[in-house]
């Protein structure tokens, strides 16, 4: 049974891989121009299906304000695995930026999250587990995630190993 709160802001618990995939797609579809992703782990199926990639491409090509920032802890593994998100990044590097945390405290942060520009968020306390919470519009809960992302982003380095080398 849906509560009034669930209908209004889309808040719900995430408790399975299916619920997690549905939440990601719903939040990506709600995004206008700006998105941040904190990905300690990038599983083979995370942000890799056709619908998610289509939404990411739509965001990346949405105009001058398009901005997708990704903190990826192990870009070399994603590149080695040929992850489809990396391929999209390589095709659209002007709208998608990927950095890697370098400080130990940042690298030990195992929580994963997505924050969009419409007040939505997805938060997983342990990115290796499909358990967490999401909301379509909950700016008060979103703000600390965005602030933490910005702080880590400022201390991180560009994931240069992901750049296409057009020689």
What is the strand and helix layout of this fold?
Elements: H1 4-9, E1 12-14, H2 17-30, E2 34-39, H3 50-60, E3 67-72, H4 75-80, H5 84-91, E4 96-100, H6 104-107, E5 112-116, E6 121-124, E7 132-135, H7 139-155, E8 157-158
Parallel strand pairs: 2-3, 3-4
Antiparallel strand pairs: 1-7, 2-5, 4-8, 5-6, 6-7
Helix pairs in contact: 2-3
Low-confidence stretches: 1-6
What's the CATH class, please? Alpha Beta
The total strand number stands at: 8
pLDDT averaged over residues = 92
Relative helix content? 25-40%
Strand content: 15-25%
Describe this structure in words.
With 167 residues, this protein is of the alpha+beta class. It has one domain: Endonuclease Chain A (Endonuclease, Chain A). Helices cover 40% and strands 21% of the residues. Helix 2 runs parallel beside helix 3 (50-60). The relative contact order is 0.21. InterPro entries: DUF7931 (IPR057691). It comes from Rhodanobacter hydrolyticus. This is DUF7931 domain-containing protein. Residues 17-165 form the DUF7931 domain.
Structure described in brief:
Residues 17-165 form the DUF7931 domain. The chain has 7 helices and 8 strands; from the N terminus they run αβαβαβααβαβββαβ.
Features:
DUF7931 domain-containing protein; eight-stranded mixed sheet; DUF7931; 167 residues; Endonuclease, Chain A; alpha+beta; 7 helices; single chain
